[in-house]
Design a protein that fits this description.
Helices cover 31% and strands 10% of the residues. By secondary structure, the protein is an alpha+beta fold.
Length: 393
């Protein structure tokens, strides 16, 4: 798999190769239009207590000027911002890293309100709350239609690789219960896909990581040290509530026109002009996420895993074509827990082998996995990281 560093330096967001003109822009260190926005606001952000990376300072001079620039191994300040609306920053007062997300209030009028909901006093400490917390809200001068949400600095949910079936079960369990929590607040997410599922990274990678490549340290060069999820269990989060909607509790069956998000495969969206219950669609999104990322795989970005077929009956019900026949999230949580109770310790501690994995790498990973596995058993570390099945030895 091509690393995100190379992707950021040599491809555009659709994955096609950059042309010669684009390569020359990178070599010269020119900022993209979406990067200029952040550079111009850096002085104001600094007064608010936030510092951006060197690339986005007003007086930035590319570190590679006068030397050769490698597209395959760019310096840290040569990595271009991939998502225009999202950037990392550092809190000046304590050095803590955060994420800044620019929101156009006209395009996403409900995003701030729904994101604030999860951080409210009534909900913030709920153990089933797996929604990204809101740390602060900034209002940029000269852009009355914009706001900037300050959020925790999270990492992609799938790096490092899942080392055991127990780690996969823990991830899916947290996400199912997190969606259950969302639906109980009468909110439909409406855009669940791999890009909108993250995890806290500090427990797994205490030295932090680079925004554009989770496997690299913040300097963009050296490898980041990672622990496994069994060694240091992370919490998983839903992010990006820009397409979400909240409904009155009295609306038992709210109906909406389709809102096309990151997952374009929703069966009911293939018919135009029809109203659908967005909660039913959320079930499809969640089921398809598990199917494509943990079971079958998807050629464009994941291989899936062997040994996950025990989830197939539940997932098949979640992704069936008729939305009304899909289970509710409450039913999903109950069925999932019943399935997992039937899994023994041997299965939970086993390695979920990726489909189509490169054999030499696989042999090496299997050996390291077994060394860790023996250590977990000796130290009686639970096979499911969060320990919610304490009866499993």
């Amino acid at each position: 798999m091509t690393t995100p560093t190379v992707i950021a330096a040599t491809t555009n967001l659709k994955g096609s190769l950059l042309d010669d003109a684009a390569r020359e822009i990178i070599r010269k260190g020119l900022l993209g239009k979406h990067e200029i926005y952040w550079r111009d606001y850096q002085p104001w952000l600094k007064t608010c207590g936030y510092q951006l990376r060197p690339r986005f300072q007003p007086d930035w001079v590319p570190s590679w000027q006068g030397s050769e620039y490698s597209l395959l191994n760019p310096p840290e300040d040569g990595l271009r911002l991939v998502r225009a609306a999202v950037i990392d920053a550092t809190l000046i007062k304590d050095g803590k890293r955060v994420t800044l997300k620019r929101v156009n209030k006209e395009d996403h009028p409900n995003e701030l309100e729904i994101t604030q909901l999860w951080s409210s006093e009534a909900l913030s400490n709920d153990p089933q709350n797996h929604c990204i917390p809101l740390l602060d809200v900034l209002y940029p001068p000269n852009h009355p239609d914009h706001l900037i949400m300050v959020l925790p600095f999270l990492r992609t949910y799938d790096t490092p690789r899942f080392d055991t079936f127990g780690e996969v079960i823990d991830c899916v369990d947290q996400l199912f219960k997190g969606l259950q929590f969302i639906h109980r607040q009468h909110v439909a997410h409406r855009d669940i896909h791999p890009g909108n599922i993250m995890m806290e990274g500090e427990v797994i990678c205490p030295g932090s990581w680079h925004l554009h490549n989770n496997s690299l340290a913040p300097d963009g060069r050296t490898r980041a040290k990672n622990f496994t999820r069994t060694q240091r269990p992370p919490k998983y989060y839903f992010i990006d509530f820009g397409l979400s909607s909240q409904y009155d509790p009295s609306e038992a069956d709210p109906l909406e026109l389709p809102v096309i998000g990151g997952d374009k495969t929703v069966p009911e969206f293939q018919t135009s002009g029809t109203l659908f219950n967005p909660f039913h669609t959320d079930i499809y999104y969640m089921g398809n996420f598990v199917r494509e990322n943990f079971i079958d795989g998807k050629a464009s970005y994941t291989h899936g895993h062997y040994g996950m077929k025990f989830l197939q009956p539940l997932i098949s019900d979640m992704v069936q074509d008729d939305p009304a026949k899909r289970p509710t999230i409450d039913e999903v949580v109950v069925r999932f827990e019943e399935m997992c109770k039937r899994l023994g310790s041997w299965k939970l501690r086993s390695r979920p082998a990726p489909r189509n994995a490169f054999v030499p790498y696989t042999i090496s990973r299997v050996c390291r996995h077994w060394v860790r596995r023996v250590g977990y058993v000796i130290r009686r570390i639970p096979p499911i990281p969060s320990g919610w099945q304490k009866n499993k030895a």
